């Protein structure tokens, strides 16, 4: 057994310790107690003991047991635990699984790709964490870009040299091949969507800059805003959808369009796809979760908890799927 008492011969050896060994032990324990203080000063709060009077941690012993919570921030601390799921027709990518690395062509910016063509999507959706004095790169030729500010602020300069500051909840659409630059002087977090533009004769998309609160509420059940014009020049749109707790999607949707979704606020249950026995798969989701939905994946959402859900949703539109 791993945690059995020491065996009798171990005890005999301990009794025959020389004075030298005893001194070494004293030295070691002094070093250890200094190390322990240093570690607690670094902010490690776990495994404090009832006899540990030096601890800087304010939380009472066993606080997580006494105040249990299912908040995702606690669950994401569980060793090896993630709510992330990757399947052939959908994926749920939760914050504890986000992996950031330097974004090619951007300076001082870390990116985490949450949706990409490797999954079967025709677009990418990624988080860009711009640090101090950072600059964006340009997308490839024929690729359009949509940027939404989640934290901080960025300066957008377009091809005519006009600069605009985008704050949280502001967005910009950059048509394919349009030169532009995002700069951040402090830190800023963006969600970015890019796809190869599907050209349509006589329709030319233009640069758009706006903010969510300026967009009109559409006359649908629940609250829906569309951030891009609903004209044929645009081959996708970004929806902002709000649900009060208890509200749910009116239609149990199955459609040809793809989605990339980022939960901005709230929590609820997302129903996606089917498992092999025909039962629906329901995912508990919360703010900062990202979802990829392939064409025709069954989808439905119900908001729960006590705050409004808001999510941002990419949807390809206005093009013949044939
Ligand atoms: O417009 C939509 O397809 C949207 N209602 N889908 C979704 O929220 N999953
Ligand atoms: Mn949908």
* Terminus-to-terminus distance: 66 Å
**Could you give me the name of the CATH homologous superfamily of the largest domain?**
Jelly Rolls
Any ligands, ions or cofactors bound here, and which? Answer: (2S)-amino(carbamoylamino)ethanoic acid, manganese (II) ion
Shape: globular
* CATH fold-level topology of the largest domain: Jelly Rolls
State the major sheet: 10 strands, antiparallel
The total count of helices amounts to: 4
Task: Give a structural overview.
With 322 residues, the protein is mainly beta. Helices cover 12% and strands 38% of the residues. The chain has helices at 8-15, 19-41, 63-66, 72-75, and strands at residues 85-86, 90-93, 101-102, 107-115, 123-135, 143-151, 154-158, 163-166, 170-174, 180-184, 188-196, 208-211, 223-226, 236-243, 259-265, 267-274, 280-286, 290-293, 299-304, 309-316. Strands 3, 4, 5, 6, 7, 8, 9, 10, 11 and 12 form a 10-stranded antiparallel β-sheet that branches. It has a 7-stranded antiparallel β-sheet with strand order 1-2-18-15-20-14-13, with no helix packed on it. It has a 3-stranded antiparallel β-sheet with strand order 17-16-19, with no helix packed on it. A hairpin with a 5-residue loop joins strand 16 (267-274) and strand 17. (2S)-amino(carbamoylamino)ethanoic acid binds at residues 239, 241, 249, 253, 259, 299, 313, 315.
């Amino acid at each position: 057994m791993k945690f059995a008492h020491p065996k009798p011969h171990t005890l005999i050896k301990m009794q025959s310790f020389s004075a030298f060994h005893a001194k070494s032990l004293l030295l070691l324990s002094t070093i250890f107690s200094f190390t322990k203080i240093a570690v607690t000063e670094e902010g490690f709060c776990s495994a404090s003991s009832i006899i540990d009077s030096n601890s800087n941690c304010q939380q009472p012993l066993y606080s997580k047991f006494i105040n249990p919570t299912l908040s995702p921030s606690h669950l994401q601390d569980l060793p090896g635990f993630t709510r992330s799921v990757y399947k052939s027709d959908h994926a749920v990518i939760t914050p504890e699984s986000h992996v950031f690395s330097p974004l090619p062509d951007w300076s001082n910016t870390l990116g985490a790709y949450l949706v990409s063509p490797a999954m079967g999507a025709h677009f990418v959706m990624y988080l860009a964490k711009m640090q101090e004095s950072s600059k964006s790169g340009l997308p490839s030729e024929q690729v359009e870009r949509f940027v939404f500010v989640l934290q901080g602020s960025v300066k957008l300069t377009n091809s005519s040299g006009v600069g605009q500051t985008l704050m949280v909840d502001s967005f910009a659409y950059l048509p394919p091949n349009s030169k532009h630059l995002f700069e951040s002087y402090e830190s800023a977090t963006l969600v970015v969507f890019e796809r190869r533009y599907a050209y349509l004769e006589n329709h030319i998309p233009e640069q758009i800059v706006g903010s969510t609160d300026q967009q009109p509420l559409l006359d649908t059940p629940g609250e829906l805003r569309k951030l891009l014009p609903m004209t044929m020049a645009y081959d996708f749109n970004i929806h902002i959808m709000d649900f009060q707790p208890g509200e749910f999607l009116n239609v149990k949707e199955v459609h040809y369009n793809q989605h990339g979704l980022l939960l901005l606020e709230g929590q609820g249950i997302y129903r996606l796809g089917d498992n092999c026995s025909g039962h629906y798969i329901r995912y508990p989701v919360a703010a900062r979760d990202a979802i990829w939905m392939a064409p025709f994946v069954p989808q439905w959402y119900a908001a729960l908890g006590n705050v409004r859900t808001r999510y941002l949703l990419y949807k390809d539109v206005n093009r013949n799927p044939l």
